[in-house]
Amino acid sequence: MDNIQIIEKARRGDHDAFRILVESHARPVYRLAFRMTGNAIDAEDVSQETFLKAWKQIGNFDGRASFGTWLHRICANCSVDLIRSRKRRETDADVADPQQHIASPGPSPERIALSGQVAAMLGPALDELSGMERAAFVLRHFEGMGIEEISVALGVLPGAAKHSVFRAVQKLRRTLRPAMSASR
Amino acid sequence: MNHISEEDLILLYYREPGIDNTTRAHLRECAVCQAAAESLAQTLNICNEFSVPEPPAEFGRSVWAQIAPQLSGPRQRRGFARPPLMRQWIAIAAGVMLLAGVFLMGRATRAPQAPIATGLSRQARERILAISLADHLDRAGRLLTEISNDSDSASAGFATERDRAHDLVEEGRLLHQALATRGASSTLTFVDDLERLLTEVSHAHDAREIQERIGSESLLFKVRIIEANLRTQGQKS
Fold first, then answer.
1. B225 Cα to chain A: minimum distance (Å)
2. What ipTM did this prediction achieve?
């Protein structure tokens, strides 16, 4: 049974066919979700949410993009939703628990002076981005999607997608600049 | 012409369409813009170092196991306010606590209801996992110590140890699942090794079959070290 047949069966509600799709696409979906969310627990949540949405929407899959690309779009949107809800929760928690402000000091200048440590700052630097900025940047930088594709994936105008990438890159440069300078 | 804007340099880096030939020609000739492009490229190239931990080989099956029950029946509105993994964590935490309570009969255990019912932060989930795993290792360590010190290894007297090992194997499966989703590969490998030994205990006829193996692999030592590390981690997070 080839991929098209499997997708067609899944579209008709065949659980076994959908199981094959889940098992074959789960790892790439997880990788994208991890890049989007920055941690394994959220990446797992997003992966599950992605496939649940895919199941509900598989009747709308028209085959113009590959199934993997279609899943990536769903995953990107689920990630944006999660990042937004997470930031809201973190904001609420910050208000409720002032000790959180002193919970995680940034790395010392000595530490970041080592060029090998610059990469270690990437996770926190990406966490500084808004959900849309992070999604647009990850899709552009890691997934190799063009601005037009990103706009379709995220359901925004191309101009908005482009500016999200710009803002993401500018923020990353600003955050990483001290480390980059120190490592030279 | 003016120097190239950062936005155009970003488009150039990603080879996006929409950059005219005049801009490209300027970049070839202008040292200032070349330096700016180089600086931008260095930052973006560093981003390639952002690594993603490989999910376990059985990840696809694990996702399917989680979502399959939700594919049938009435559709429910779902959201991230109560994500599926959180329910899994609630089940794991509750399951582990319940097993611990039944297993130790009378030992004081942590009551899971209050923190679980109010929703768990990531730190709280990490803490629960660390403490649950430390408790599990403590129980496994006690059992292995008793087996190591057992001089009367008659078959009839070993039934209790077999039952306890069986319970620990069941409990370990819950923790294995939680560790797998967290990507804790080194701890996961150790828990796997321990589970294999406990499975052997649960099928062994007497202590002698197991004693040699416990000693040769320094298992008790490893159990205690990892347990101590987890308790420290649980206190910090």
1. 25
2. 0.78
